[in-house]
Amino acid sequence: MPPAKKEVRTASRGGRARTPQYVKNFRGVKNWNEARAWLEWRGIEDIECITPDQAGVARGKMMPSKKFTSNTSLALPSAVFMTTISGGYPEDGNGFHYPEDDGDLKLVPDLSTLSEVPWETDPTAQVICDLVHQDGRTVDFTPRNLLKHVLAAYAERGLRPVVAPEIEFYLVCKNPDPDYPLTPPVGRSGRPIGGGAGYSIAGVNEFDELIDDIYHFSERQGLEIDTLIHEEGAGQLEINLRHGDPVELADQVFMFKRTIREAALKHDTYATFMAKPIQGQPGSAMHIHQSILDRRTGRNIFTAEDGSETEAFRNFIGGMQKHVPNALVMMAPYVNSYRRLTQAASAPVNNKWGYDNRTTAFRVPRSDPTARRVENRIPSSDANPYLALAASLACGLIGLINKLPAEEPVLTTANEDEIDLPRGLLEAVDLFENDDDLRKILGDPFVSTYAAIKKAEFETFMEVISPWEREFLLLNV
Questions:
Q1: Alpha helices in 305-435 (DSSP H)
Q2: How many domains does the chain have?
Q3: Whole domain around residue 98: which residue ranges?
Q4: Residue spans of alpha helices (H) in 380-475
């Protein structure tokens, strides 16, 4: 059985049912004939052909719908997938040298992801694309292909992962000058939003109209929100998605991030998925619930016939305990991500696990035995969902393959102990590059490419002088 739903607050507002009216838009179109009919029926004029880069940023091309359906060849430069978050390129990675190696990669639309773009004024659609080389070979280092590669490794062993992500984010006042700190927005009460409003319905209602637009935009795209809550931070919200196939759920997180940002901008507000956007406030996570099914029987391999835990359940946790610290750079990809992974940020700081223990890195929620699952609480909301899911599932798979034992569960507070995770980006990259088991699952092209990008991003960060340095060093040293 897949992970059970997190029952916090049903996805409904103002007494109106929130069952998606447009669910067939997403995962509904199966072939080009259906795509043509779908576009014609909706009067779509333009198509956004998009794909996530290593940061999870939507890259691609826009074209008239008639050109899209005429079997036009689409291509993107391979340099797109070697780009740092600041727009530069690493000096070297996976043998890539810009610009001499910047050949074209073909975009292949996944028609099942065809959906509307509800915030555009003209009738517009979007479709997520995969990347292949000119000769049709899969591009190993692109995020969506990497996740599919990890799932194929499960399929070879007769297994099928099921996941359910939870995404936290902040609403903040517009901030055109990056030298100024972010501040919480003003809600409908006319007062700035304060912290400590975890699970507060009144906190959610401060943003009624914005949240209505999030729901409306989601329905138009066939995206289904399971629950929505106000988290502990000032203006911090969390959206939970229903369990399902990892690629489909990664696609939905990818689309939700675009959707939430657009809804916020409509209300003159920013939505940010930074891991630690506001000093003194909790960080934002992307928790991932995971269970593994036997492809033949459909049974959850974490649970024996008598309802007890299986060896596979402990091995999956054992793999995560051993390898998630080495894969952390895929779940905490930026310098800012490590500001969240501290004892003061209500986040995991080591690789402990426990039953319904939210202070651990890996929590086993209370559930029916058939829905037994492991929640990975380490990933931050700034992570590329495809890469975070690929990393988490790869670590669990290594545990299953190598039958790695799990430590004993922790019954006490775990995030006040010594910090065992990498403390910064370069340390995390070093562990990542030197984990041979991870490299076997993820492949040399991705590991080398991704590590090179992260090193380059760190160098650009080091060029910036922070307020802390001006505060304590300017007149004191």
A1: 311-323, 328-331, 337-340, 385-402, 425-433
A2: 1
A3: 23-137
A4: 385-402, 425-433, 436-442, 444-461, 467-473
